[in-house]
Amino acid sequence: MNIKQKILDTIKEKQLTPIPAWKFLTRTYGLWVLSSLLLILGSVGVATMVFIFTKNDWDIYNELHESKMIHIVSTLPYLWLAIFLLMLVLLYIDIRHTKRGYKYTSLPLFFAALGTSILLGFCLHVIGVGQKIDTLITQGVPGQAHIFNPRLKGLSHPEKGILTGRVAIIESMSSTTTRVYIENPLLEGTWIVIVKPTTILPPTGIHLQDRIRALGEEMEDNEIEEHQFFAQVILPFNTLSIDPRWKKHNKQSSIPPLIQMYED
Amino acid sequence: MTDYSDQTDESLALLSATDHDAFGALVGRYEQKLYRYVRRITDVNHEECEDILQETFLKSYRYLHNFDPSLSFSSWMYRIAHNETISHFRKRSVRPKIIREEDGNTYLQNVAADLDITADIDRETLQRQIQDVLDSLGPKYKDVLILRYLEEKSYQEISDILKIPVKTVGTRINRAKKQLRHIIAGHDMNIRS
Does the keyword Transmembrane helix apply (chain A) (predicted)? Predict the structure, then answer.
């Protein structure tokens, strides 16, 4: 057997040279950069999911759904969950293809990737990344934002007494009636929230460009084109705590009317 | 002609990028070992085996800068030889079903030592039965067993060659050993606990 001479002759004849080191380094570092990107993307998904979950209308969930469990299942951000799982799987595959990735058994590696994504995701949520992403999507693609945040669709059912939107115009009709025009890309036509002295308002009032939630009932008026919604309660869009006046209202006790509205 | 006998494989690998003689010395060191290994995991004839070996060494030359110093050079060479052999198989869709006769005794001795068999063995019968077990286990178990009992590689080396976790190496060997114990128990032999 004289393979050695054959090989050396082949190297000489074909003028073979070793592949440059930088090509291997590019692949090595490229895999790690990709892994880092996937980790960050997955963590951004976690941060956004955590944000959406914390602002998930816990103050009025029983107005929206029959039970807390149904509320949770109906408003889970499934798309973000799918994105997160996809990133996680890709991250796992990517790490497996690194030089030393084979040394780790599957389950511990997968759970390490999962744990790191979740931990980083919570950190990103704390610094407001989740909220930022949610806002970007809501402003950037308002017509499709509900796909990322199912909550928006759940709050857009005026026929069921719940309405959400961004305040576009505030029009004082009389001393007792104010019309608040809102924009909601999920609903057709123009929507006007009617505010009366009995309407419970947010403590800081309503301003232009505020996002609000309104509980009340849809008013049918065939004489006008716009849709009207009489608001019994107007709440800020994102609130964690239940307004004590809303609690009282819910128990149908009498509350002195409180009107605080500001126009720019 | 430079004498490379006092150089380690790893230092020769470093020199090989610019010194063909150094690479020749490496080929000389691994030629026989890898030839034996390739023949153990294939049923190819001598010429085909040489072809696989040539591809292995040429690939190792082209990928010299990809050698990971945290591995032993031996493991790296075996890994390339293994992968080239698998590529060759994929073209032929055939893998061997027998342990070669010349390897039979070595294999049996090493397996017997590992299982602590004390009694005399009807070697021919036992070897056939062991071969049946191996065939039923599939190629991924055979690869591990050949590296362990014929090439006498450590678990870490097998892990580096086959690119599987050390734990998986252990699992596959243990599973094969369990089945082998079952056969050996059927021969009424003593197995030291």
Answer: yes
| A&B contacts, CB < 8 Å | 66
Q: Which two tokens stand for residue B29?
A: 């060191």
pLDDT of residue B91: 72
Token reading at B49: 């085996």
Test A7 with B57 for CB contact under 8 angstroms: yes
pLDDT at B43: 75
Average pLDDT, chain A: 87
pTM of the full predicted structure?
0.79
Which two structure tokens, joined as six digits, stand for B38?
């390739």
Residue B119 has pLDDT above 60, yes or no: no
Q: Considering only CA atoms, which of A153, A154, A156, A163 is closest in space to residue A216?
A: A163
pLDDT tens-digit series, residues B59-100: 999 999 999 888 899 999 999 999 999 998 777 655 555 555
Domains in chain B: ranges and CATH: 9-92 (1.10.1740.10), 101-184 (1.10.10.10)
Phi, psi at A193, each rounded to 5°: -95, 120
Q: Which residues of A touch B (CB under 8 A)?
A: 1, 3-4, 6-8, 10-12, 16-21, 24, 99-100, 102-105
d(CA A225, CA B159): 74
Distance CA A189, CA B3 (A): 90
d(CA A193, CA A226): 10
CA angle A132, A136, A141 (to 5 degrees): 155
Domains and CATH numbers, chain A: 21-140 (no CATH), 157-249 (2.40.50.140)
pLDDT over threshold 70, residue A260? no
Mutation target among B12, B51, B58 for the A interface, most CBs of A within 10 A: B58
Q: pLDDT class for B112, splitting at 50, 70, 90?
A: low
Provide the β-strand partners of residue A231.
A216
Q: Please provide residue B7's backbone torsions phi and psi, each rounded to the nearest 5 degrees.
A: -90, 145
Q: Average the pLDDT over A149-153 and give the result.
A: 90
